[in-house]
Design a protein that fits this description.
- The complex is a heterotrimer of chains A (115), B (402) and C (492).
- With 115 residues, chain A is mainly beta.
- Chain A is globular, with a radius of gyration of 14 Å.
- In chain A, the strands form two sheets. In chain A, strands 3-2-8-6-7 form a five-stranded mixed β-sheet.
- Chain A has helices at residues 2-5, 45-50; strands at 22-23, 27-32, 35-40, 58-59, 66-67, 80-83, 86-90, 101-103, 105-106.
- Chain A contains two helices and nine strands; from the N terminus they run αβββαββββββ.
- Chain B is an alpha/beta fold and 402 residues long.
- Chain B contains twelve helices and 18 strands.
- The radius of gyration of chain B is 21 Å and the shape is globular.
- Chain C has helices at 19-30, 66-81, 142-152, 167-178, 197-202, 207-221, 280-284, 324-341, 347-375, 399-407, 413-420, 433-444, 448-451, 465-469, 488-491; strands spanning 2-4, 9-15, 35-38, 57-58, 86-88, 92-97, 101-105, 110-120, 124-126, 139-141, 159-165, 182-188, 226-228, 230-236, 243-248, 262-265, 268-273, 275-277, 289-292, 296-299, 312-314, 390-392, 397-398, 471-472, 478-480.
- Chain C is 34% helix and 23% strand.
- Chains in contact: A-B, A-C, B-C.
């Protein structure tokens, strides 16, 4: 991974993407738990986060254990996070958008209610 | 042959309540239940709204609006019909039993029915709603001592998540909520702990009558003899009544209901609007009800109901727009033409007791119903006069005329 | 963002855009009928032919394997013939109403399409097998892992172990290796016939046997050990997987032989013990289902893909696990039969059209049966579950709670749900009911018909109140960027 580390500032320093033989969509930025990370149009939120090397995405409400990407096809609801203030959003089914704000979900998650 | 002093047919909230109150008097009682899809207890929001229900809030006002939209009643009739004072008093007396009952059931059964003092808010969206609220405020059969008129500012302070596009709200104090499933479970398990026999997954197939007196029932698990038979079969009560030769004007009235994903506490009160009602339950789910449909025993959920209830919910609490629906389901209310329950004995069939036709208020009136039936079989004086709810000839004739 | 109207009345509605759904749409289009294809993904293809995002482009010629070639061929055929098909991608089906009304929903809106015929091609998902540590981040299903790396080209870990049964575990190991993940071992619980030279020789003309042979050869070239009668016993780690315990299982029932277990450092585990058909819609539609001991509940069909409910057909892995190649043929037959049912083509012409796919299915039947028998789940794996293992991931129900329920007389899944909340979460029991149903059958010695299943209830897929509130009809235009499954360039 050393070669990919260079010239990448901040938390998106390590990149677990495969970079040979593929050109991705436009480079954009997500805010994940307050930190900017790099992403490419067409990626899912889960992919963009796993590309930083992070795999625990939320904690559960009863036992508080960590959960991550499990089924990858949208049926298990383990990879949910709070995206743009909406909890329980499946990151494996949600595509990145520039400026999207993603937060780790604890238990049922926090709704920021706007009227 | 098995025997019991009292047999209760139907394991919904009414049957469970009766079994509990009868067992509490030390009388031998057997509950026979065949779970059916569409049981109303499972499709209730658990609102205890004696005032609201009596003056037409909850499902009443939603149904009333639907009738206006279909052109079945004139547009300016913005006041849904009110139920008689005798029902309001009955409902209030029942409601007052809950705080003590909840504790009692928790002690005996170990189950918490999640009783909560919430109050009920009626949201006024437009001038028509304000006019309706004015009538309620001025002419409530119980006076307006239990009603507060909230300005939009007061409402926003009390319920910050409710839409700001309102003219105000009426708060009905004393209208509360609980968890209807937990209530039925608590009654049943408490009854069991008091010695009641609970037979589940068993159908009553016939009723034995000798010389005008009920002597027992036939069931899928064999015959059981008894002195009293209580018909608490909800939407299926007419079917059970027929087995005893008793004609009962109870028919299924479908109500569809939408439940959300679990949310943090976002509502303090229960909400009633012209489009829907909303109640946030103890574990965080918001229940959105409900339709009023006469479509027989059909329990299909329909897109049109999902649309109208969802739209109504989003209008009342705009942030719900992004909240996910966990499930949509329906229940069959035991409907009666005059919207009053049918209680007590019938002429000509001794030992037979009605406890059916509770329509929208079975959860609310379950304690008083259970208590009255237990007093009838014990021969005690009644805690509330049963006359308004007897199956009289006039009520029968009236229901056929309408 | 484009504005568009969704047609409300259709001859045929196809649910699911995998191989079966795609071929059904091709045949429906060929028959000239009004047809809608509804798919949850942003681009059609299903799990097997999953396409990369639109904005991803290969900068050098990809080293395509047989599966990719087949997938591309299918998409080419679709793009050539199925232009008139109304494709609703990023769209779920929430419920099938009476009278063949399909209730659909996307992010922003919902609606109803009234169909004359419905083809359910909802595919399968991976059989969940609980084991200690299976909820840790870093544990994935093999199909999920494969689809994730193929489309996103992101490494889900550095040192991987694959455990399960069937050819998919081998191909997934190769795909992981290809993107630079170190694959420590492939643990196959069975001793499958597909790994024997004589078996592959017998089937060498069949394309999928060739794919298996290619994958096995590639695995060998990649120097990835393939251990038969082995499985992962436990995943270790505090907040994510840092190690695993694995070991041999007995050949008959796959009972873990704990005495011979070993612990190694690994940070990624992909697990896959075969597939379970998505039967939610066929169940909601009231179709008859049978219990297949190797698979689970499967919708009953005639050989022309018709279920017991007239006008409702089912094709592909959602109706029985046969893999993508057979799914393609089943989809064709379903599309042709549905068109015949509404008199879009005469019976004789229909027969001409479906005879070839029927013949192909027939010729692979023995192979599929052998494969399914070899990868049928064995009950010994249930012995991996510890009392504190969460068997219901959503509601966090521990195995001990299930046993308590069973001790107090619970004898069927629906009652277990009420007793423990197992299956009440958002996955609707997909991840707990199969293993706990099997466990109940074994422990209580009851037939699957009595243990039953967790009844699916609408909406079977997540939908927001906002989308339901915005239920449109075809006169209402909706703003959408989600119905662009097919690139215009793809069609041209």
């Amino acid at each position: 991974m050393k070669d990919l580390k260079e010239n990448r500032p901040g938390p998106s320093e390590s990149d677990h993407r495969v970079n040979t033989g593929i050109s991705r969509g436009a480079e954009i930025e997500l805010i994940v738990d307050g930190q900017p990370i790099r992403a490419y149009e067409g990626e899912t939120v889960a992919a963009a986060i796993l590309a930083t090397g992070r795999r625990a995405l939320r904690t559960t409400s009863e036992t508080g254990e960590m959960r991550g990407l499990y089924c990858g096809i949208g049926i298990c609801f383990d990879c949910v996070m709070i995206i743009d203030d909406i909890p329980n959003v499946r990151t494996c089914q949600t595509f990145v958008e520039n400026g999207m704000v993603v937060e780790s979900q604890k238990g049922e998650g926090k709704w920021s209610v706007k009227t | 042959m098995k025997s019991a002093d009292v047999i209760v047919v139907g394991g919904g909230v009414i049957g469970c309540a009766i079994t509990y109150y009868v067992a509490k008097k030390g009388i031998s009682v057997t509950l026979i239940d065949k779970p059916k899809r569409g049981r109303a207890t499972s499709a209730s929001a658990g609102g205890l709204w004696p005032l609201g229900e009596s003056i037409g809030l909850g499902c009443g006002v939603i149904f009333h609006r639907a009738l206006i939209e279909k052109g079945l009643i004139p547009e300016d009739s913005h006041v849904p019909p009110q139920l008689p004072k005798s029902f309001l008093d009955f409902a209030i007396q029942s409601n007052e039993m809950f705080p003590a009952l909840a504790n009692e059931l928790r002690e005996i059964s170990g189950i918490d029915c999640e009783y909560e003092e919430t109050s009920l808010l009626y949201l006024m969206y437009d001038e028509g709603d304000v006019a309706f609220a004015n009538t309620l405020y001025g002419n409530c059969p119980c006076g307006n001592s239990l009603i507060d008129w909230l300005t939009p500012e007061e409402l926003a302070k009390a319920e910050p998540n409710v839409t700001r596009k309102v003219q105000g709200a009426l708060r009905f104090n004393g209208d509360n909520q609980l968890n209807p499933y937990a209530l039925a479970d608590a009654y049943r398990e408490a009854a069991r702990n008091l010695g009641a026999d609970i037979i589940t997954h068993t159908e009553v197939t016939g009723i034995e009558i000798d010389y005008g007196r009920v002597t027992g029932v036939e069931t899928g698990a064999g015959p059981i003899s008894c002195n009293y038979l209580v018909n608490a079969a909800g939407a299926w009560a007419a079917h059970i009544g027929k087995m005893a030769g008793v004609e009962i004007p109870v028919y299924p009235v479908k109500g569809q209901i939408v439940g959300t994903e679990t949310l943090p506490k976002v509502l303090s009160a229960c909400i009633s609007t012209n489009d829907c009602y909303l109640a946030q339950k103890n574990h965080g789910e918001i229940i959105i009800g409900s339709t009023t449909e006469e479509t027989g025993f059909d329990v299909e959920v329909t897109p049109s109901a999902m649309k109208s209830l969802s739209a109504g919910a989003v209008r009342a609490l705009p942030f719900l727009k992004n909240v996910k629906v966990k499930r949509v389901w329906s229940g069959l209310r035991p409907g009666t033409q005059d919207e009053l329950p049918i209680l007590g004995p019938v002429e000509g069939t001794e030992g037979y007791l009605n406890a059916c036709g509770h329509f929208r208020t079975g959860i609310l009136t379950s304690p008083i119903t259970g208590l009255l039936i237990s007093e009838m079989v014990q021969g005690d004086s009644l805690s509330y006069p049963v006359e308004p709810f007897l199956l009289s000839k006039e009520r029968l004739i009236h229901s056929y005329q309408s | 963002m484009e504005r568009k109207n969704i047609k409300d009345f259709q001859d045929i509605v196809i649910i699911g855009g995998g191989p079966a759904g795609i071929t059904a749409a091709i045949e429906a289009a060929r028959a000239g009928v009004q047809c809608t294809l509804i798919d949850e993904a942003p681009r059609i293809g299903g799990q097997v032919c999953r396409q990369k995002p639109k904005n991803f482009e290969a900068t050098q010629k990809e080293n395509s394997n047989a599966e990719q070639v087949r997938g591309q061929k299918l998409l080419d055929e679709f793009n050539e013939i199925a232009e008139p098909v109304q494709v609703l991608s990023s769209t779920s089906v929430l419920n099938l109403q009476k009278n063949k009304e399909v209730l659909w929903a996307s992010d922003r809106a919902s609606g109803i399409i009234r169909a004359k015929q419905i083809i359910i091609a909802t595919g399968a998902y991976e059989r969940p097998v609980p084991f200690p540590g299976w909820t840790l981040p870093g544990v994935m299903t093999v199909g999920g892992a494969k689809s994730f790396i193929k489309t996103m080209l992101v490494k889900p870990g550095q040192r991987a172990v694959i455990s399960g049964t069937g050819p998919l575990i081998v191909s997934t190991a190769n795909r992981l290796h290809e993107i630079g993940v170190e694959v420590l071992a492939v643990l196959e619980a069975g001793t499958p016939p597909w790994s024997s030279k004589s078996f592959l020789k017998e089937w060498e003309t069949a394309d999928f046997a060739r794919e298996i042979a290619d994958d096995l050869r590639e695995l060998k070239q990649n120097k990835i050990p393939l251990l038969f009668n082995h499985a992962v016993f436990e995943a270790h780690g505090e907040n994510e997987v840092t190690g695993i315990t694995y070991g041999p299982v007995d050949a008959d029932e796959w009972i873990p032989l704990n005495g011979q277990a070993k612990k190694i450092a690994a940070d990624f585990v992909a697990v896959g013990f075969g597939f379970i058909p998505n039967t939610e819609l066929t169940q909601i539609a009231g179709c008859q289902h049978d219990f297949d001991p190797g698979i689970g509940w499967v919708v009953e069909r005639d050989k022309l893909m018709q279920t017991s409910v007239p006008g409702i057909l089912a094709a592909g892995d959602g109706a029985g696990i046969s893999g993508a190649i057979i799914a393609e043929e089943e989809g064709r037959i379903a599309g042709i039969k549905a068109a015949e049912n509404i008199q879009a083509i005469p019976a004789k012409e229909a027969k001409n059209r479906y005879d070839r796919p029927l013949g192909r299915i027939h010729s692979f039947e023995k192979f599929r049966r052998a494969l399914n028998e070899a990868s049928a789940i064995r009950s010994g794996l249930l012995q991996l579950i510890q009392s504190e293992t969460l068997v219901c991931r959503c509601e966090e129900v521990a195995f001990s709670e299930v046993n308590q329920a069973l001790d107090s007389g619970v004898g069927d899944l629906q009652s277990l749900k009420l007793f423990t909340r197992l299956g009440m979460g958002p996955c609707q029991g997909r991840n707990c009911a199969p293993s706990m149903g099997m466990y109940m059958c074994h422990t209580l010695n009851r037939p699957p018909e009595e243990v039953g299943h967790i009844n699916p209830r609408p909406p079977i897929k997540p939908v927001t109140l906002g989308a339901l509130a915005k239920m449109v009809n075809e006169k209402e235009t909706i703003e959408s960027d989600s119905f662009d499954a097919i690139n215009k360039e793809d069609i041209l």
